[in-house]
């Protein structure tokens, strides 16, 4: 039987890389998939999902008021059977859209794999994440580490000087270098103003030339 999966993590844990690898595995076996991405996220171009390590794929953009069950039914009518649906940046789903994805599983018998952040920079649940945590059949954490070496479970937003930002809109697209994944203990420390974050390099070092 199909299931609704929620793969969650802090920032920069490889969620989109995992999504794209999973979609590739389906295509390698001749199976058709559909990748959904929020319309508000156009960092890599409209209708493109991309990972930090360079993998990318075309995706179907959706708005916050769009019915995802109807969208997927229309896709099947136009292009044929679907074997899996992927949802990137699933924290931006609405409550209704999470319910619609559960209908894709329960009524259409198509597995849905949703990937997203669990909490925002204030430590509060996103709407989509809240209902995925409540309604998903399987919850899987994609792990990453804090600069302290502990497991990172929280996200902080920082300014260009590495100082934590505690106010502002929940959603801020782009500027991944302004978000840092930290442990709960470190989140408390820097939120209280007793620490600062060193912004990390975003790519692997190539080594010294000889």
TrEMBL record:
Its main location: cytoplasm. ATP binds at residues 9-16, 88-91. It catalyses: thymidine + ATP = dTMP + ADP + H(+). The active site is at 89 (proton acceptor). Keywords: ATP-binding, Cytoplasm, DNA synthesis, Kinase, Nucleotide-binding, Transferase. Transmembrane segments: none annotated. It is found in: Cytoplasm. Homotetramer. This is Thymidine kinase.
């Amino acid at each position: 039987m199909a299931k609704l999966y929620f793969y969650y993590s802090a920032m920069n844990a490889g969620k989109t890389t995992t999504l794209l690898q999973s979609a590739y595995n389906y295509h390698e076996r001749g199976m058709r998939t559909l990748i959904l991405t929020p319309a508000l996220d156009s960092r890599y171009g409209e209708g493109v999902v991309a990972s930090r390590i360079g993998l990318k794929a075309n995706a179907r953009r959706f708005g916050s008021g769009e019915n995802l069950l109807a969208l997927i039914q229309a896709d099947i009518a136009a292009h044929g059977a679907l074997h899996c649906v992927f949802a990137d940046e699933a924290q931006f789903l609405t409550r209704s859209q999470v319910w619609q994805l559960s209908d894709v599983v329960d009524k259409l018998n198509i597995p849905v794999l949703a990937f997203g952040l669990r909490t925002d920079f204030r430590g509060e649940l996103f709407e989509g994440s809240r209902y995925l945590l409540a309604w998903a059949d399987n919850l899987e954490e994609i792990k990453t580490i804090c600069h302290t070496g502990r497991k990172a479970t929280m996200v902080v937003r920082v300014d260009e000087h590495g100082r934590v930002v505690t106010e502002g809109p929940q959603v801020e697209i782009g500027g991944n270098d302004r978000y840092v994944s930290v442990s709960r203990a470190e989140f408390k420390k820097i939120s209280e103003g007793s620490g600062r974050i060193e912004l990390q390099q975003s790519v692997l070092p190539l080594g010294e030339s000889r």
